[in-house]
DNA sequence: CATTTATATAACCTTTTAGTTTTATAACTT
DNA sequence: AAGTTATAAAACTAAAAGGTTATATAAATG
């Protein structure tokens, strides 16, 4: 594991669909290991391992409720991903801007065409 | 590699610091493989492999300029990561909101303290 | 056409990842 | 104290990741 920057661990943890599904589930509230394991066609230890990966990345923390170890989502690493994305944000905003402009132009063209057609009929 | 959802490939690609550094470099404009390799203490084939991972994730595309294969950043996968984050965005916004409130309260307390001290002197 | 320059591919090695089954631990229940 | 429930740890396996060196390809240049 040995992750240099926290982002290494965070992105690696998020690269697995099982782990992303677990995070999505935790958005609805705390859940035990068995509850989290239920939707998946894999053994309980496998899920425990996924949870450890998420925990090591700081994406979840675990409490104690009798035998259960309820997991809860932690937001900090996700916030860091969001912050990392900032550098690139202008890129897709520019793209959407260009797309908007293009659509605007198409609409204008269509309008012009209709007007022309109407006159000629 | 074999990535189900595009996010699998994207997050996996972003999990490596070398690859994130390459993307950051490409933010300044197109670059050849050798130019991209230059800052790193690793062989040219190693960098070529990283580029292939980025390319497979759709994070870069490559053109042709004589022998050079200039790489350029592609924004779509990053935009998808941003979109994926939307689900979680409220979480850290709520956290920052709580922090703001707390700081506000602290400031008020401080003000009250000063006022009290002034009256008693 | 031989050489150089830029990049990709092949073959290999080591470490990590993601899963398995089996076993241990921890806490509650009877 | 014995049994049950929830979770973790151990030992193993197969595949993938990330690197290496050596070699091949593609395009320009002398």
From TrEMBL, chains A, B:
Gene3D superfamilies: Winged helix-like DNA-binding domain superfamily/Winged helix DNA-binding domain (1.10.10.10). It holds the Pfam family HTH_5. GO terms for molecular function: DNA binding; DNA-binding transcription factor activity. InterPro entries: ArsR-like_HTH, HTH_ArsR_DNA-bd_dom, WH-like_DNA-bd_sf, WH_DNA-bd_sf. Residues 1-93 form the HTH arsR-type domain. Keywords: Coiled coil, DNA-binding. Residues 89-116 form a coiled coil. This is ArsR family transcriptional regulator. It comes from Rhizobium pisi.
